[in-house]
Amino acid sequence: MLGKLDWSAIPLDQPIPLVAGAVVLVAILGVLIWVVAKGHLPYLWHEWITSVDHKRIGVMYILLASVMLLRGGSDAIMMRIQQAVAYQSQGYLPPEHYNQIFSAHGTIMIFFVAMPFVIGLMNLVVPLQLGVRDVAFPTLNSVGFWLTATGALLVNLSLVIGEFARTGWLAFPPLSELSYSPGVGVDYYAWSLQISGVGTLVAGINLVTTVLKLRTKGMNYLRMPMFCWTTLASNLLIVAAFPILTATLAMLLLDRYLGFHFFTNEAGGNVMMFMNLIWAWGHPEVYILVLPAFGIFSEVVSTFSGKALFGYRSMVLATMAICVISFMVWLHHFFTMGAGPDVNAIFGIASMIIAIPTGVKIYNWLFTMYGGRIRFATPMLWSVGFMVTFIIGGLTGVLLAVPPADFMLHNSMFLVAHFHNVIIGGVLFGAFAGFEYWFPKAFGFRLDERWGKAAFWFTFLGFFITFVPLYIAGMLGMTRRMQHYDVAAWRPWMIVAAFGMVVLTIGVICQIVQLVVSIRNREALRDRTGDPWDGRSLEWATSSPPPVFNFAFNPDVRGEDAYWDMKVRARQQSLEHDVPEYRDIEMPRNSPTGFVCAFFATVMGFALIWHIWWMVILGGLGAFATFVVFAWRDHDEYVIPAEDVARIDRVNIEERRSLVSMAGAI
Amino acid sequence: MSMTATAGRAHADPHHIGVVIEHPGPASKRIVTAYGFWVFLLSDIVMFSCFFAAYAVLSGQTAGGPKGSEIFEQGNVAIETVCLLLSSFTCGMASIAADVRNRFWFYLGMAATCVLGLIFLAIEFREFADLVARGYGPSRSAFLTAFFSLVGCHGLHVSAGVLWLLTMMAQVFAKGFRADVLRRMICFALFWHALDIIWVGVFSVVYLLGSGV
Amino acid sequence: MNLLDPQGPVAAANSTILIDSVFIMLAIVVPTIVAILAFAFWFRASNTKARYQPDFVYSGRVEMVVWSIPALTVILLGGVAWIGSHQLDPAAPVPGTGSPVRIQAVSLDWKWLFIYPDQRIATVNTLTVPAGAELNFQLTSSSVMNTFFIPQLGSMIYTMNGMVTKLNLRADNEGKLQGLSAHFSGDGFPDMMFDVNVISPLAFPDWVATTAKTDAVLDEASYRKLMQQGIEKGRPAYRLEDPRLFDLIANQHIPPGPGPELISEAGRPHSGGQDAR
After folding, report:
1. Going from the N-terminus, what domains does chain C have, and what CATH number goes with each?
2. Is this complex scored with an ipTM above 0.95?
3. Burial A403-428, CB ≥16 within 10 A → b, else e
4. Is C55–B14 a contact, with Cβ atoms under 8 angstroms apart?
5. What are residue C148's DSSP bridge partners?
6. Domain, as residue range, for B151
7. Among A79, A161, A175, the residue to mutate for chain C (most C Cβ within 10 A)
8. Is pTM beyond 0.80 here?
9. Which residues of chain C have a CB within 8 Å of the CB of B58?
């Protein structure tokens, strides 16, 4: 009846996951009760859960990422403490628990923090920057988000029911095969990634189509803001790379569920094939994450320097070069497999070649600052911090691409420090810069600068205090994923790294405080003009938060930096007052398809993990039925009458006129 | 003021190429939908290519089990191929019928496509069932694993296609040739033709190359 | 275990390349970081002495330079990588004094088995080698993947079931070193560290002779017992009964290690973990 599920699945004898799970459960229940008791449920349902507005979906993605950041961060804290204390002892975490933690930490941080954060920002901003009213497939967009949330939910469910994978975040076979990992951990891992992977693929298709096919009049390719370009590159990579992950995990699942032999030791299975396939996805994946971050930095550096981006075309070229080359370097993840000198050297050099366009980007940001008038608001701080940090990560990355150096450093703490250097220093700093930069656009008020700067400095310093010791430990021969160790030379560095973790945690707390303080002072921080940073691209041409239709008129773009251009022209034409003629606007209706579909996906995923076959069929039928119901509806759009559009737009125009006239007076 | 004024112009055409063709604005829904579905099909083909790659890697790993030439039956495969290629034709007929809003030919075309698809699936299922019954199931060897997954993955796509096909027919029955139904019909036709192209790959790589060995 | 304190030619060459590469890159990284901080500081909005040049958004010369700096660095480093990969390929010979010592390493759950086929002995979790001689390693795994790594001797390499990888090393100085597995392999993974005793070439035959006197015999039966999941705290040594044992393991005549026993059908996180503690 319930497959493999019975009472022994709940780890009653293990206090840490149980307490953690209980805390999460109580928190979720508390929020739910509060929502219901306060009568917010209808609002949430109509305005958020069923919303197909790209801005709302973007915000929900970012919310999901932030919550999961706390979960992944707690895992990180536990690991740092364990390695600080587990010298010549078992520490406080037994191996089967520690191994789950580092596997969950990697999985969560990549798939449920970094991915949703950048996808959320892209969703929020790209249609605005392109000057259009929505993405290409609004309802699918909602489906994509909710499927990602399903994956996150399943990963968290593994805390209290069963276990998570104990195989590392990529679940290398044969360790992840049924014979060496008989528990449900790997199944939790694989199914949550399969489900969220579908969501990511949907988001990718949606954004590629949006950028390529939905641009406002005059928005030629070479006039798109840099963030749109990096979004295009990143989503092209999603479309090309995520199917590889899907196929690879499908093979692993077939091995585990039906006794296939793709990666088993027996019957001719091939482990090396898994390594090749997973990294053929895995290496593009890091560029999927970091390219949007590059786009954010381009926007931020140019805006806060008061200059257009230096070498725009060169940047476009570099972005697309990275996009293509990222598919040709996967083998550098396993130089130590013994593939032979020619193969190693070719892939080593190919990996270094990626450093060229990346280096060009750094220099172009540098020259964007040159001759600028730099305002050090929080997003700019994150950007400069990124440039310094990321160069160091790039250095160690190119070092690891030199095969003989990799023969010494592969899988070491040095490697761990390297990829945290580029992922924290690149993706996370980028996500935070984007968060601070576009927050006023999404919510209509700015974030508190003092707490924001404190968060930056603590995170920046905390990063170095945590990860420089890991670089050193790697040079001392320490390998990753050690639950305990007996080498005295490693210990001091682990203690310093644990201290760094404290500093990093303070950074995160500052971030939370910043949010709370800003919400409290929102009236003082209100952004009435929609253009708080003196921005250059079209998202700043509408109010903050933008109306549901984004723009009353699709803007007409005449050059790069479309909005800057408009502002300049407005000043020259000394604010001519022509009264525009407003028209009705059709917008897509909200739809619960995404949420309902994700509900059935959750049921199905859970049932698959625990081998509850009737429930699997039920979930599958439910998901199919949901789509049929969606396909059957008669009205998929509603009309916003011209008067409403006019009323909403006029308020914004008044505020904006005063801004332009003020700037003109100066 | 003069400084900012030049800034606006300078970026419009920094290389002074001269002619800039203005982008006309967002594309129509029909184009956007079909385009997005194309992108999906490309990603689906990437997924298939992984199974092709796995088949290429594992096809020699018979682990003492049968080789391809010992289990493939050319006759069945020929019928399967004919069915699928014909179904592409009938699917094309249905698309045309939908474009000219002719219900009769639409239903006929779709029904023929469905029948041909089902014949294909039935033959494939019999082939699989027969192999499993002889003890040559996917867990026999890595070669059979790769074979069953590649061909089975295509078969699953065809099954999903048949399900979609029936839904499309029901939808035309209930809603007529509405704009959104027609858009879905374009996507379905693309999907069905893509499955054909993949089958050509499967046919060549698995059955033709495999029979020689 | 300091990588910068190499005890053999392979490690020495690897770490030389490592350090050289770092310095080549630092030569452009340091000026770039300085420039970032300097530009950011000088062009701050409050600095009235800095000249605002909003039109400086393209310069062919600057583009030329910014594309060529990383390109030149990569060409230089690419050369290092190409030559290094060929000279320091794990399978490349490492000439030494005296006759080479053949060692067959098997990673087990969770211990290392070192078979000396020519000396007809085998040890667990200790590797004893003569200084100065070429060490020819053949490596495989009894179950899951591991990576064989002695940081101060040089290159690491994967061990995989059903496959044999090759690695040649040399230890130059007598002394005690440590090795480890550098690829996560399950609950007992951190206990896969092993001792490396580098002894004088003269003492090596004596050590072989003493070891060969042991009563413990390594044959297929005792190997099967050894490959059960568990941690080996001791340092057992064996007389090797069948010198072809490694081949039997590598070509899967002896089936792969069993993994954890299924205690219950449900996904309890106990399986195997018991032994690890």
Report:
1. 9-49+56-87 (1.10.287), 101-258 (2.60.40.420)
2. no
3. bbbbbbbbbbbbbbbbbbbbbbbbbb
4. no
5. C157, C181
6. 30-212
7. A175
8. yes
9. none
